[in-house]
Amino acid sequence: MSELPVPASIFTAVSVLDSLVRIGMRHVVVSPGSRSAPLVYAVAALEEAGVVQTYVRTDERTAGFTALGLAKSLNEPVGIIVTSGTAVGNLMPAVMEADHQGLPLVVLSADRPPRLRGTGANQTTNQVNFFGSHVRATVDLTAYPEESAGEQTVGFNECLAALTGRDAHVWGNASGTPAGPVQVNCAFDTPLTPNDAAEQILPQWAQSLKEVERPASVIAADPTVEPWLGSDHLPAEGYRTVVVAGDGAGAIAAEFAQKLGLPLFAEPSSNALFSANAICAYREVLSESLGQQIERAVVFGHPTLSRPISALLDNADVEKAIYEPAPVAWYAPGRRSEKPYKYIADLARFAGSGHGVSVVGSEQSWLNAWVQAGESRRIEHQQNIDRYRESGENSGRAAALALVQDAWNACREDGASLVVGSSNIIRDLDLGVVSRATSPRVYANRGLAGIDGTIATAIGISLAGESGKERGASTPQKVRLIVGDLTFLHDASSLNIGPLETKPDVEIIVLNDHGGGIFGTLEHGKLGKKPVYKNAVQRYFTTPVDVDLEALARAYASSGISVKIVNV
Asked: Contact 105/75 with Cβ under 8 angstroms?
């Protein structure tokens, strides 16, 4: 390569970031480090020009999940800049979650130059293709850009394509695989800082990108949705069908169930819980006689919450289908029993109409039977909640149900988004709220359903801004986060937000039940009642904790995040 006016490391950083901005990257999370300095100086120039917005987090795991929250809210590429060594490893949990959710995270990992690899040089390890199967594409840039397009150019283009769901060979076509995270490993040799020429060039380059527009998506929507929803046509056949709306299902699941007159089992993060067809406490009703009468099941989104739903979808006697207008990230093709349908009109013919279908041995309609059974369960839970509010009697999980009900109603009133931790809390929300005409937007990390990074994810969602799409600085959106004590403790350090950083608008409500209560609802809870297993279950599963959560929250008061501890 001919002699450059700027250090090669700066030239590489500018070339990489330029391409990422042109495909729609507008937000970058940065963790400090020296080897990543070329990327940092370049992205700082971009922020100064109003091209991107940056966020600094000293903990790389926090940085990863903050970026994940941004990507969940924006559905566009979000960058993460980290230095070499263990910094890269700390991103693994967020990348794994992004993989299973199909979120376009860009890991920009700084690395030592090839001449130092394998020599025992400081902070140097093998981080090429570090994330393995959890990224859609990866490239090791040791001398980029290339004078003539070679392996590195091809690899980087594959990363750009994977972030946007494009075909790397035919840029205008959609890929046959879902979008998702990528790793761009940048090998930087010294010097790592800008020279005098770069001081002039970086601002000019950044200004040149101010008017760049995000390219239109190539992922085609299902063309049958609007015509089908707008028509009066219903399938001629009728079956005892149910609709399962898992994480990310969206409004189409509710509209589908409503038009066909079918019961809807909507998980909170399906964002389909605003239909009169949504069945309260559906997972409890499934264990009753109605559950044995199901002939067909239609799946939208990624169902993860309950074993009764898993059992339903594993039942060989039930015919099953899944709505898949585009490739999804959460399962491998051919590994599930549901038949995939690309078009909603075809899926409707499979599901059949619920209008006129009755339960076995009764004239009661199929839908009304489910609605009434769910309502009976709802009344039982509400009575427990009311007793708890009046007397403090915590029957079952009444305290938790009251908490999630209050948070849900508060979000409906003030328009906040609701982020829900894994384990018991999201299952409490699944039981404790009633479908309304309007429902808050609900987010949850259900790709792998871990408790990692839940606070950071909520912060990222808030920082994405109210508009969600505006370039440059945006006003954080109101987010209400509900978590258990272990989830809070696991990610409490994400409350460490520096004084120079944009503060999110987040309110955290912590249900403190002093340990991993989720295990008490599983088979371990029954074993724990036996003297021979009591100590093992308590120590290794429920893991009681003794932390002053209020004091811990006060230590991070400068974050501006409100933390309320509810002890039960």
From this structure: no
Q: In the Cβ-directed half-sphere of 358, how many Cα atoms lie within 13 Å?
A: 5
Q: Compute the distance between CA of residue 125 and CA of residue 87 in angstroms, rounded to an integer.
A: 11
Report CA-CA distances (Å) from 246 to 251, 253, 302, 478. 11, 9, 4, 24
Which tokens is 254 given? 């509710």
Q: How far apart are CA 116 and CA 124, in angstroms?
A: 8
Determine the residue type at 177: T
Helix (H) or strand (E) holding 141, with range, is: strand 137-141
CA distance 142 to 153: 11
Nearest to 260 by CA among 224, 298, 290, 316: 298
Q: How far apart are CA 495 and CA 559, in angstroms?
A: 6
pLDDT tens digits for the chain (568 residues)?
Answer: 557 899 999 999 999 999 999 999 999 999 999 999 999 999 999 999 999 999 999 999 999 999 999 999 999 999 999 999 999 999 999 999 999 999 999 999 999 999 998 899 989 899 999 999 999 999 999 999 999 999 999 999 999 999 999 999 999 999 989 999 999 999 999 999 999 999 999 999 999 999 999 888 888 789 999 999 999 999 999 999 999 999 999 999 999 999 999 999 999 999 998 889 999 999 999 999 999 999 999 999 999 999 999 999 999 999 999 999 999 999 999 999 999 999 999 999 999 999 999 999 899 999 999 999 999 999 999 999 999 999 999 888 899 999 999 999 999 999 999 999 998 899 999 998 887 778 899 999 999 999 999 999 999 999 999 644 444 457 899 999 999 999 999 999 999 999 999 999 999 999 998 876 666 666 777 787 888 888 888 888 888 888 999 999 999 999 999 999 999 8
In this structure, what DSSP letter does residue 514 have?
S
The single residue listed with the structure tokens 């988004």 is: 417
Name the burial class of residue 212, with classes exposed (0-12), middle (13-18) and buried (19+) by CB atoms within 10 angstroms of its CB: middle
Q: Residue 265 carries which DSSP code?
A: E
Tokens of 488: 């809070």
Q: Are 348 and 327 in contact (CB under 8 A)?
A: no
Q: Which helix (H) or strand (E) covers residue 517, if one does?
A: none
Of 405, 393, 441, 445, residue with least CA distance to 423: 445
Give whole-number Cα distances, 312 to 319, 320, 557, in Å. Answer: 10, 9, 46
Burial class (CB in 10 A: 0-12, 13-18, 19+), 312: buried
Q: Which segments within 328-477 are labelled E, that is strand?
A: 339-341, 417-420, 442-443
Please give the Cα distance from 508 to 545 (Å, whole number). Answer: 19
- Nearest C-alpha neighbor of 450 from the set 56, 61, 30, 59: 61
Distance CA 472, CA 454 (A): 25
- Closest by CA to 62, choosing from 25, 35, 91, is 91
